[in-house]
Amino acid sequence: MESGPVNMIDVTRKKDTVRQAVAKGKVQMKRPTLDLIRKGKLEKGDVLAVAKTAGILAAKETHRLIPLCHPLQLSHISVEFDLTDRGSFVGITASAKGIGKTGFEMEALVAVSVSALTIYDMCKAVDRSMTIGDIRLVKKSGGKSGLYLAD
Predict the structure, then answer these.
(1) Residue 121 annotated to the active site
(2) pTM of the complete model beyond 0.70
């Protein structure tokens, strides 16, 4: 198969607007693994603190990881975790915000993805059956297309 052209989108003429994106995902695991995270009893240390830091750092480097992403000036990144009793998983929510000519969707998605991978890395010694999934954009605001809310 022959490959076609690859282009970074030219956003020169777009207006700078306040933009925000929110993404979610989760790491499914065995109940004892979740209990170890809650109690801070994993050998590698505080899983959620490390995963939060990794997600924030990754969002800041998105343009280095995804070839056609523009480098953006982020004004805020947050990564939050949900360890409810409704299931045996860690829910992850990341928000990326700034002023720019293009959206922050990829930064939020990368933050969730790398946070999930970090949780996996820190827990794999006790649970190799973990799965990472449901990574998706749930909200986007700003720019010409305005507000997007996932179903």
Answers:
(1) yes
(2) yes
